[in-house]
Design brief:
461 residues, alpha/beta, Rossmann fold, 6-stranded mixed β-sheet, 5-stranded parallel β-sheet, 18 helices, globular, binds pyridoxal-5'-phosphate
Amino acid sequence: MNYKSTRGSKKFNFKDILFSGLAEDGGLFVPINWPQVNLKEIEQNITYSDLATNIIKPFVQDEISIKDLNNLVENAYSNQFSKGEIISFKNLTDNEVIVELFNGPTLAFKDFAMQLLIPLFDYYLDKEKNKLNLIVATSGDTGSAAIDAVRKSKNINIFCLFPKGRISEFQRRQMSTVTEKNIFLCEIDGTFDDCQRIVKEILKDYKFSVQNKISAVNSINWARIIIQSVYYFYTYIKFNNNIDNKVNFSVPTGNFGDIYAGYVAYKMGLPVNRLIIATNENDILDRFMKSGIYKTDTVVKTTSPSMDIQIASNFERLLYEVFDKSEKLTASEMLKFEVNKTLKINKDNSKDILSVFSSCKTTMDEIEKIIKDIYHSFGYVLDPHTATGLNASRNHSDSQHLNFILSTANPIKFSDTVEKYLGNKLDLLSNFSNLFSLDERIYKVDNTIQSLKDFITINKL
Ligand SMILES: *Cc1c(COP(=O)(O)O)cnc(C)c1O
């Protein structure tokens, strides 16, 4: 498989795009074409690992043998995912299914990508006896997932930026109590978008990045996207006897990574009726879907902090399709957007692409209400992010299709909020029972690009 940037025509291979994350021209990597998956050839009882190998194979072919890929996938998903099942499903009603993607080591769906992404880096680093310094901006869950995956690596240091006071205590402690020396947790006095901007600027400084062997593991990394597409297929296969049935997926959305992975699955042949973009008050994508105007606003701090984002980085990949895969148009529109913070498309010209999406914004009050309702009706505890997904799905009210709601985090990660709403304590999982008594290690780094560069220069591998 070859790849290109959304803003350029040069070709790249899988290893190139795995390690550089962002293209030199500032664009995001996309595959040249969409390999098709023939669902008729897939057994319903296929294991998650075998399915993952199948789906990912065409994207790494020529570079990683099937055998090596299968080993990597098996290792990623066999031990780390507790609870017996990689994904658990909870039927709420006949046509409403919660897809629990939080059985991994850090209790959010981001483990799916990280537990495989980091071994993919190590696969190449081991071969070449090379080292790597990863940087990542986190609104809470990416960081803990990345840190958990990196702590076992001898070849990688990680610099993880989080916005001070804007992630839950559970999330912070998951990262700050890790003792391995290759982990650097950096607190930035700013928002998630500030953290993300610093990371992007450092990656864009090609000379600095190459000199310091830097790469990123944010959701802009293509490998994460394709790894996440797997669970859309898996969910579909496990629930469908008739493979022609179309289904809906409602996805709590921030950076547009998870739902874009659903779009990729759709492009590869998954029968999707609708991908529902669920947002919180940070509703840039919901406003875009309604108006065709993509315009940033100030970030609102909410009870679903992993979605407190006003620039959805992966959205450029969809815009690229909206702009008819024109790298020139994408580049010029994105550069204008970077200056004016606003971008407008002609919705009528993009009907084909956008018609698979719909969107719904859920406010904090609505989150509270739905968490209480679902608890009282089903005895089931939703996390605040998943609550936006369920609310969006119900708003869309489609009884003709099966509605899957992706549950992106275990509610325990947001116990402060959830316990307040429900009036009782959630059980802390046994492997996290001492989380609140362990020592924390956090590095304070100024909210500037140069400060992080200095910090990396001192602490890199
Ligand atoms: C990261 C995250 C999201 C948003 O996912 P994107 O891929 O950024 O759209 C939603 N919910 C939770 C719990 C998350 O950690």
